[in-house]
Amino acid sequence: MVNIAILGYGTVGSGVAEVIRTNRELISRRIGDEVRIKYVLDLRDFPDDPVQQILTHDFEDIISDDEVQIVAEVMGGVEPAYTFVRRCLEAGKSVATSNKALVAEHGANLLAIAREKKVNFLFEASVGGGIPILRPLHSSLTGDEIDEITGILNGTTNYMMTRMFCEGADYASALREAQDRGYAERSPEADVEGYDACRKIAILASLISGYQVDFEDIYCEGISKITAEDMKHAKAMGMTIKLLAACRKQDGKLSAIVAPCLLGEEHPLFHVNGVFNAVFVHGNMLGDAMFYGSGAGKLPTASAVVGDIVEEARNFGRNLGVTWSPEKITPESKECASRRFFVRMRGEFSEWKERLEKDFGRIDAVKADGVLGEFGFITEEMQEGLYGQIASKYEQEILAMIRMA
Ligand code: HSE
Predict the structure, then answer these.
(1) Is 184 in the pocket of ligand 1 (CB under 6 A)?
(2) Coil, strand or helix: which one is 249?
(3) Are 83 and 41 a contacting pair, CB within 8 Å?
(4) What is the rounded average pLDDT of the residues 143-162?
(5) What are phi and psi of 85, to 5 degrees?
């Protein structure tokens, strides 16, 4: 018998119980032993749910029970999750988590404890919901130097951008719908300001670099300033806007960014719509690969947690070697990255053309139907630092800038 405990009976926690209940037989077959949820920890009571019979309000019940071999941490937040997970690993229990805040902040440390105790700390669900991405990076792609990852890593904002693109929905109603569907974080800022995607790309950057990448060191810009006018301009260019999270290794340097970007139809992430996430990976031998699927929601996320539980149950007494060093690596400043920039500006293009060309060099004008009193233009590829210096001369006139992917 494999006994597990679930910390937190919220959306994902109840999903983990449901996945195990629904697929109990095949999960047990795949493990080669029967699986049982022995405890669920939550501060609340659930009198109308059979979970009440195995519910505890006291973490000590779980930590002191040697029969519990695997713990699913699905509480979210850094504390008390960190203390609980650390104690579980130190007590020789493997942990599976969906908690990106925990992994982004304490991953290196928890992985080291797991290694020392010959247990496992797995966190597939923390990035890309139900999409397998961390395990492929750690197993199938270990023959490769992964030099780029670009992803749509937040389902809520992708759902919102899709609604704004396809149906002209306004920002507030798109957010409300995403929240009603259970995709959003407790605080909408975590999604719309890009913090959720930022923690996920920090985890991916740590995995591919082998060093701790702190999310605070990654430039992060959300979608809260994206307007209907931005989207109209995107459409006029045959493009769309997506919140992208990217990291790249080049010449021994790491860069990382989270920001809304303009993408054309030829871009592999252009057609990733709704709550779906996708992670585009480039390896020095592999070339391109893309992982696509359900990036948020109760059952997809729970499915990834249960996948980790099965992997841990198959590997009792053996650490799988997932690791990165606690030594910190700071990504290069975004000012060093080169790209093209789309700019929306007050006035008429004909009035500004000459001055803009003198400052920016060659530019391409963009005109969106029905948007009055302003125009758009795209710069040539240039470093962001240089773009910022030039754009500062037009502070009063520039309405928006969006990076081109
Ligand atoms: N709020 C997150 C999202 C949930 O929308 O992608 C999954 O991390």
Answers:
(1) yes
(2) strand
(3) no
(4) 96
(5) -65, -45
Q: Are residues 239 and 103 in the same domain?
A: no
Long-range contacts of 24-27 (CB under 8 A, 24+ apart): 27/306, 27/310
Q: Could you identify the atom of ligand 1 that is nearest to the CA of residue 159?
A: 5
Together in a domain, 145 and 285: yes
- Encoded tokens for 331: 């990504």
Pocket test for ligand 1, best of 123, 191, 204, 273 (most atoms within 8 A of CB): 191
Q: Do 210 and 237 lie in a common domain?
A: yes
Per-residue confidence band for 169, with pLDDT thresholds at 50, 70 and 90: confident
Q: Are 308 and 261 in a shared domain?
A: no
pLDDT tens digits, residue range 6-51? 999 999 999 999 999 999 999 999 999 999 999 999 999 999 999 9
Q: By the 8 A CB rule, do 247 and 188 touch?
A: no
Query: What would the pLDDT profile of 111-142 be if each residue is shown by its tens digit?
Result: 999 999 999 999 999 999 999 999 999 999 99
Residue 225 is a catalytic residue: no
Going by CA atoms, what residue is nearest to atom 7 of ligand 1? 296
97 touches ligand 1 (CB under 6 Å): no
Q: Which entry of 200, 242, 249, 334 is annotated as an active-site residue?
A: 200
CATH number reported for the structural domain that contains residue 380 in this entry: 3.30.70.260
Q: Domain containing 308: what range?
A: 2-130+299-328
Nearest protein Cα to ligand 1, atom 4:
296
